[in-house]
Amino acid sequence: MKEVLSSEWLKLRSVDSTRTAIGAAAATVLAGVLWTFYVSGVAEDRGGALRAAAPEQGFLPLTQVSLAMIGVLAITSEHATGTIRATLIAVPKRSTLLLAKTAVVAMTTFTAGCAILLVTYASSRLIAGDRRLGFNDASFTDDLPMLVASALSVTVLALVGLGLGFATRSTAAAVVSVVALLFVLPGIANYLPSPWNARVSALLLPNLVPQIAGRHLATRLGEGFLPPWAAVIAFAAYAVAALAVGFHMLRKRDA
């Protein structure tokens, strides 16, 4: 297993797509800096306090989608180039292959997600200074659960992308599915009859982040009702379900 992990880590860090995905996710830092400068200017013009969205939360979808590409391309690029055949010859036990890719993708995306979110958080608070912009009123201790939950969301989406990549063998199909989970399904949930709109919405990936941090889900559909432990289980269920489907298809089909 150690050799397989080393091999998968070497493959992941040696391809340009990984660096490109992390670079795109790191654009969150620049976007957060520009947003903070803009909000600070507006606050000074108005001469008073201003409540604004925290940049590490407002631009979180950019980080999520960018790093999810690492999970998708970790397997679909091998199918596209045909190197999956050599991989399966070297690692004939397919469960070992999936576990190794899962571990490497999870480690990479969680580390990158934490670093990007923390730098965005720190730079925005440093720029904001003592201006009351809403997002810099809380202490780091108060914001830490939300930062951890956001980093976990990045990792979960990358693992969902990995599982869907195993299942579909298609980069486009896996990426579209991840985007649908983030942006399309929450919109569809709005049109469900009450109270199912609020209940379903609370179970969707974007809305699990604040609930994991122990915050209420503030939407026009009502407040989220999941306690943090239940939100964590729901979060993990997305990754487990996608990887289970991917493993089933991996075992069922030839390379």
Q: How much of the sequence is in beta strands?
A: under 5%
Elements, N to C (H/E): HHHHHHHHHHH
Number of domains: 1
Biggest beta-sheet profile: none
Give the helix/strand class. Answer: mainly alpha
Number of strands: 0
Low-pLDDT stretches: none
The number of helical elements comes to: 11
Bulk shape: globular
Provide a descriptive summary of the structure in words.
The chain has eleven helices and no strands. It has 255 residues and is mainly α. The protein has one domain. Helix 2 packs antiparallel against helix 4. It is globular and about 65 Å long. The model has no long low-confidence stretch (mean pLDDT 86).
Short note summarizing the structure:
The chain is mainly α and 255 residues long. The chain has helices at 2-14, 16-46, 55-58, 60-81, 84-90, 94-128, 140-168, 171-189, 196-202, 205-212, 228-252. The chain has one domain.
